[in-house]
Amino acid sequence: MSHFGIGIYQVKSSANVGVLWRGAYQLGAAFVFTIGPRYKPESADVFKTWQQIPLFRYNTFDEMFAAMPYATLLVGVEMGGTPLPGFEHPRQAIYLLGAEDHGLPPSVLARCQATVSIPAVRRASYNVAQAGTLVMYDRFVKEKQAEE
User: Fold this and answer.
1) What is the spatial distance between Cα 44 and Cα 98, in angstroms, rounded to a whole number?
2) Range of 139's domain?
3) This prediction's pTM
């Protein structure tokens, strides 16, 4: 059985967590998470996603890394990784997105077993919630195609 979770390192905007959380619910994530103290929960979720899949909050990257499920690979979502169209998603994965303003630091990227990037027409990076949703959608589509 495959499973995945997705989260943001040092998230800056609670709105991005809400958008990512809803996408995670729609696209089959087992959980979402944040790392760091910058996230403040808000109660604007009209779909009550919090009742469907859990949100874990970790103070540090090491705390999250120690809590990862057995045999689950950490996948960094960052420019310079394997382009998403050719990326083979691990059966068990945790996708980690970087902060809106700084991305993932080199110390975190060094501990990722894989790194994926999302091609774009423009040089500027995607919004963090958009990037996460695109990765989850790609995973969803590829899993459905494999079932056919």
Assistant:
1) 23
2) 3-147
3) 0.92
In DSSP notation, 77-124 reads: EEEEEEEGGG----SEEEEEEPBTTTB--HHHHTT-SEEEE---SSSS
Place of tokens 């999250």: 64
Q: Which of 29, 38, 31 is nearest to 9 (CA)?
A: 38
DSSP H or E segment with residue 33: strand 31-35
Q: What percent of the chain has pLDDT over 90?
A: 71
Q: Which of 93, 78, 79, 99 is nearest to 36 (CA)?
A: 99
CATH number at residue 33: 3.40.1280.10
How many domains, the chain?
1
Q: Is the pLDDT of residue 119 over 70?
A: yes
Q: Rounded to the nearest 5 degrees, what angle is found at the Cα of 109, between the Cα atoms of 83 and 126? A: 50
pLDDT in tens, 43-76: 555 556 667 789 999 999 999 999 999 999 999 9
